[in-house]
Write a structure and sequence with these properties.
The chain has four helices and three strands. The chain is of the alpha+beta class.
Length: 122
């Protein structure tokens, strides 16, 4: 019985060495997904703010740029539609969400997120 135990002395260490990299990679992937989801929610808020601003004659691009989690250099806002009262205005925003986490960023490129809101001009 003592012989069998002596042969298994390092088994837990070897198992941990095999499982730990896979576990860390899984955690990094989940974290990257959460960061992209945060950027998607921020883009929705920024596009909604831009649409509200366009509805009442404010600058929609400036309103979208006030979203705190978005990098201004990765955000593009476009406004289409007429400026006449009662007409529809569409605000489209595109954001390139970076995937820069340690291992994940090497295998997955930046994620492009798009959002669109249409409002009636007041």
């Amino acid at each position: 019985m003592t012989r069998a135990r002596r042969g298994q002395r390092g088994q837990a260490t070897v198992e941990m060495a095999l499982v730990l990299p896979v576990l860390i990679l899984g955690i990094l992937i989940v974290l990257q997904i959460l960061l992209v989801a945060r950027d998607a929610a921020s883009l929705t808020a920024a596009t909604r703010a831009a649409a509200r601003a366009a509805m009442v004659d404010d600058d929609p691009v400036e309103a979208a740029l006030h979203e705190r989690h978005l990098d201004r250099s990765r955000l593009r806002v476009e406004v289409s539609g007429t400026a006449a009262a009662g007409e529809l205005i569409t605000v489209s925003a595109t954001y390139r969400s970076p995937t820069g986490l340690a291992v994940v960023g090497r295998f997955v490129g930046d994620v492009t997120l798009t959002e669109r809101f249409t409002v009636r001009k007041e």
